[in-house]
Structures are given as C-alpha cells and as structure tokens.
Amino acid sequence: MVAAQHVLAAEAGAKLLRCGGNAVDAAVAAALTLAVVEPWMCGLGGSGFMVVWLAREQRAVALDFQGVLPRALTVADYPVDPDLPPTLMGFPAVKDWRNTRGASAATLPGAVAGLSHAAQTYGKRGFGAALDPAITLAETGIPASWYTTLLIATEAEVISIDPASSSIYMPRGRPLQIGERLFIPRLAKTLSRLRDHGAADFYHGQIGESLVADLRAGGNRITMQDLAEYQVIDRPAMQARHRGADLYTAGPQSGGQRLCDMLAHVSGAMPTPPERPTPETWLVYANALETAWRAHRIKNGTLAEVGAHTSSLSAADTEGNMVALTYTILDHFGCGVTLPGTGILMNNGVSYFDPRPGLNTTMQGGKRINSSNMCPTVGVRDGQAVFAIGASGGDLIMPAVAQIAALMLDFDMTLEEALHSPRLDASHRGSVRADPRLGQAVLDQLGAHHRLEIASNDVGPKLYAFPSGVAWENGMLSGLSDPFQPDSNARGQG
C-alpha cells in the first residue's frame, strides 16, 4: 500500500510492489514520480528525511538527506535589508531576496543521494527500477489539474523571475490551464541518466557538471567538490514510547524531537485517556504542542518559523516493512529556477539559515540544514509496524502528525478516523487555531486558556497540514491521504 500527495505517485509505488519490490522500493518510486507530477513541492533539487521499519531486522533507521550550504558561501553574500519584511522562516530578509529567490537561494540537494541510498541499501529492486515510472511520465508530461492551475497562479510572481520556469508553468504568459500538458524539458533525460549511471552521475558526473554550471551562472557558489563531498546520514531512528507503542521518527534535526516532547506531555497530563476525546483532551493536546514548540523556539533562538511546502508519502508491504518519507524544495516552486540543462527545479534552502551571527541556525559555508519541520513517523507495537504517517505544510506538519498518532494510540482510532478527525494547530506563536467541527464545548475550553483562532480545514488557505498514511488494521492494509489535497490518493498492490 502506498499513500502519496499525487495519485500517480501512489500508483508508481504500487507498481514496484507488484514487480516484487518492498516498501522502500515503493516509497522511492513514489518520491521520484512526485518530482515529475508535483515538482513545485519536491524533486531532484530537494532534500528531506525517510524513516524505515525493517521487519526482519526488528529495527528502524532514519535517513537524513538534508541540504548543505556550499563551502565557499559567506554571510557577506547575503546582506540583511532592513527595508524588506522577514522571510517565511522568520529570519531577516536580505538584499534582492537572495536567500529566498533565484539560484543564490539553493543549497546542495540531497534527494538523489538519499533516495538512491535507500533503494540500494534497503530495497530489493534497486534505484534504476524505481526511476522507471517517473521516466515514463516525464517523457510525455501529464494533464494539469485545477489544483495545478491554482498553485501556479498563486506563485506566478516567483515563477516569472526565471525564463525556463515561466515557459513550463506559464506558457503564453498565463498559468497552465486545466487539461494542458505539464511537461518539463530535459527532465526525462536526466532521470534516464540516473537510471543508467546511478546517483554518482549527479554528484560526480555529467548531471552534476550541468547543475553546477547553471547554478554558477545564477550566482550560486556550489562546486563539483561540494557535490562530491555530500553524504547521506543513516542512523537509528529517534524513538518515543506512547501507550505501549514505539514511535520512530527522523531525529533532532527534524520535527521528531517536538513530536516526542508533545507525546511525553500528553502521557504526563493524561495518564489514562477517557473513552473518547473530551474538551479536556483537546486542551491537553494544545498545551502539549505549545510546550514542545516553545522548547524548539528557545533552542533555535527564533520566535517565528512560518511556512514551507513539502511532499509526504507512506508505504507498507506484506513482509511487515513500513516507510514514512517527507521531502521538499522548501517554498512552493523553491527558488523559482528550473535549471535549463537538467530540468531540475531547485530548492531555496538557504532560507533555512539566519543571516545574523551567533545562532543555532546562522548560515555558514558547508553547514547542513539542522532545523526542519518534517516529521515522518512509523508506529510499532509488539515488534510489528502498525502505521506510517507524515504530512506537508511547514509549521503545520508536527501538530498534524502528532495528533493523528495520539488519536490512534490514545483512543484506538483507525487511521481513517484519526486522519479525518477535526484538528487544532499550535506552535507557540501566540494563538491556538481550531477547526469549528471540534464543537462548541471544545472551542470554549480552548478559548478559556488560549487566544483562539477558529478556522475551517479547507483546500486553501491550508491551515492544518496535508497528512497521509498507511496502517495495518484488522489484518488488512489501509492507506489514505488528506481529503483536502485534491490530487492525492492511495494505491494497493492488488
């Protein structure tokens, strides 16, 4: 079973399962396909995390393939402009938006290394097989959905800065219309080279050389040596215990520490859950999220970290393996630049770093992204993986993932019940947001203790993340995505 933010990605993962692959193969195939069908969220120019439960070995691993700043970068490259408003990450803006827009905003992308490492180390079919579905779609393109048109129109200003991106997403000066073909020149060739030559071509070979040349032309300092030195971090997953289950997540550089802190607070404040959620339950959840986020903001030395756009997917196989994967090019359309030599839409990961000195997140040449909201999580009980969940949506990610996990473990909800439940959002920003479907009694309880925002869970503006997941329930695999993500879905092997 594969659940992803685009139905074609879920189908690509299911195809690998039908061809004898395992959950890792399926997740990698789905992730690579998202680079073709949802390139404004993630892709070969991005970075992220993957958590894998290895059933036979009874262990969970976390892969960190986050972006890295070029070694030659200096803070002087990004002078603060006090006349501009802060970035979406809450950091000061710099002259000409060099840390958020254009080639100068891109970090070394780790996605190709991370996905290749996962397939080669933990998969059964290899990296090349996982690329085949993406190559097929990249060769022909896909019809744009109404959601595609909406996203392009929303980000027209960013897209318009780059001729290559404009020609792809806004031909004839307007967003792709519903049914028009979304086709990215040279991306199929790049994917085919990866299939034929492996990830080494990205970090040591022809693809890397083209990437470096295009980025250098736009003012980026990434070199071939930077690419050659890139490393995937493969380590035991961070672990939390809640209601008799072990939750494995991506580690302290992700949203995982906040998830662990949130669940620990819930266990302490609500040692024995009631039969069903009560107004007091939701207050405990809100307080737990606030506590976890406060610790995070103090550690990072920032009081604002708003926004980001990612892709999340989950996969499971009949051998008992499970995968939760989240990766991103950060903002919608990343830095806005599609590299003409490869068709890769680049991230704007430099905006993860603060141009001010002396902070945990201060930018420095060669530094790896060390603070992310991504929170892919696998739940295991009695040695068997029972669910894998994740979400996209910046600050919204951890609250959504933590609540879905808590609802499943505190109240024995199914994945469908928990994912479709109304939620709240809290991140120590001065208010708590709540879906009115929680009911007046819950809203009154929250409002008595927090400044309350009441907002519906809709397609846009998206205020409660886009979660998805898979789960073993009553001997069967289920998978589903957020009902307010129009192109998402789940697909099974059968």
TrEMBL record:
<dbReference type="InterPro" id="IPR029055">
    <property type="entry name" value="Ntn_hydrolases_N"/>
</dbReference>
<keyword id="KW-0378">Hydrolase</keyword>
<dbReference type="Pfam" id="PF01019">
    <property type="entry name" value="G_glu_transpept"/>
</dbReference>
<comment type="similarity">
    <text>Belongs to the gamma-glutamyltransferase family.</text>
</comment>
<dbReference type="InterPro" id="IPR043137">
    <property type="entry name" value="GGT_ssub_C"/>
</dbReference>
<dbReference type="GO" id="GO:0016740">
    <property type="term" value="F:transferase activity"/>
</dbReference>
<keyword id="KW-0865">Zymogen</keyword>
<protein>
    <submittedName>
        <fullName>Acylase</fullName>
    </submittedName>
</protein>
<dbReference type="InterPro" id="IPR051792">
    <property type="entry name" value="GGT_bact"/>
</dbReference>
<keyword id="KW-0808">Transferase</keyword>
<dbReference type="GO" id="GO:0016787">
    <property type="term" value="F:hydrolase activity"/>
</dbReference>
